[in-house]
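Q: Now give one record:
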Amino acid sequence: MPQVEIRTPAGLFRADFADPGARITIEFNGAGKYTDYRPTDEVLLAGRRRENALIEGGWLVLRLQWNHLDRPAELKRRLQDMLERSRRLSA
């Protein structure tokens, strides 16, 4: 699901994509995200806090760049690996 809101003890975060049942988030890392809106150091620190809050809340985070979409077989394998990891953690 795109743009899923996830509540954590550190606040409410919006994931680019997420599967709440599997507790997997997918985040796209584009250069503009780090340079266009706020100073890069602020964006990086906020991103680390956000990712830590998600991980501590039991979420798995898969970071992608847009060029990963050009390699669908590799992307599929990475997503399947993440789903398998989720299944093992919830067993």
